[in-house]
């Protein structure tokens, strides 16, 4: 796939500079394990209600943290996905 113009030549990328600080503010919220679990459930449920047949989770492991700010283990993160799927 050929992108034109090249990403570094695009003039519209500067518009995102004003939003960057907002992305940084919400990054911590989305990676808090309890919020992540809730949003994962709602997104998955909504897809299923819209008759989406295949849902592929894409997640960067090692970003979720608990109440004390400690990073969750891989097993704990996978348990969140399994819990959400079982709940639905």
Rg (CA only):
17 Å
SSE series = HHH
In terms of DSSP E residues, the strand content is under 5%
Shape: extended
Count of DSSP-assigned helices: 3
- Computed structural class: mainly alpha
Q: Spans of 5+ residues with little confidence (pLDDT < 50)?
A: none
Distance from N terminus to C terminus (CA atoms, Å) equals 37 Å
Can you give the mean pLDDT?
Answer: 85
Question: What can you see in these coordinates?
Answer:
This protein has a domain at 30-87. The longest helix is centred in the middle third of the chain and has 17 residues, at 33-49. It has 88 residues and is an all-alpha fold. The protein is built from three helices and no strands. 49% of the residues lie in helices and 0% in strands.
Overview in brief:
By secondary structure, this protein is mostly helical.
Topology:
Layout: H1 20-31, H2 33-49, H3 74-87
Overview features:
88 residues, mainly alpha, 3 helices, 0% strand, extended
